[in-house]
Amino acid sequence: MELQEHPTQHDGAAPRFSRFHADLARRILEVVRVFDCPVGYQLKEQWLSEQLGVSRSPVRSALRILTSRGIVKSIPHQGSFLLVAAEDIDASASQIPPTEEERLYQAITLDRYAHRLDPRINVTELVRRYGTTRSMVGRVLSRLADEGLVERESGRHWSFVPSLDDPDIYEDSYRYRLVIEPAAIMDPAFRADPVQVARLRRTHEELLAGAVHTAPSRHLVETDADFHESIARFSGNRFIFQAVQQQTRLRRFMEYQFGEDRRRMELSCREHLAIIEALESGNREAAARLMREHIAIARDLRPAFG
What we know:
Elements: H1 19-34, H2 45-52, H3 56-68, E1 72-75, E2 79-82, H4 89-93, H5 100-113, E3 120-122, H6 123-130, H7 134-146, E4 150-152, E5 157-160, H8 167-186, H9 194-208, H10 217-234, H11 238-258, H12 262-280, H13 284-300
Antiparallel strand pairs: 1-2, 3-5, 4-5
Helix pairs in contact: 1-3, 5-7, 5-11, 8-11, 8-13, 9-10, 9-12, 10-11, 12-13
């Protein structure tokens, strides 16, 4: 079953969902994991809506996605019940296929990194190239703009911001990260949230248990970004967090390519896990040193620049 773009349903047809509902389905799985819900647990719409800060209607649509993937069982007049153990949630999340919008987003980012797209683009060219609609292209460009990857020009033209597809920018970025990310850990205000650290540990342990070789590359990219941004957020310094967030955005084009190198992603997960263990033991000096080594290793894996 493919997730389509509009949340409508026709007689006898499979339900179709938006990116919002697909993302909400993944967030429900995160709630299940955080609360360590057992198999058979009833996922009540009201409880989920309170946890996620949304109304019950989109929760209902998200639960239908999970039902279609065999993760949740819906029993008429009784409710929705979990079929997957909390420890298997990451593998289940990877079963939720990307929406049309997500597929277009990935295609544009990969084509830009491979220099198959010019730095300056327009909506008409993208509609023709990808065989989609103007509204779909507009939504993806807006998302890219929100992530700081493109900027709007006059008319229908857009331009990609500089990314790590240039060797000088690449080197500057990693030198900057070697300074700021270890420093974030040593900041006097740094406080590692135990709940979030435990969440990061579970995510990485599940990947190392096998999901790193089967999960979509987008899941690996987002996990990597979540790790680095979470560490920066622990610093309690909004400027450090924003700086690291900007760097993860700059790396996104490149990370989609590296996401296919499963051996490297496995090693990266192990490096992340070593940092997590140092934080759990309260050894910030070791965590900062391991972060510096991790970034240096990543820097030395220079891509082949065009």
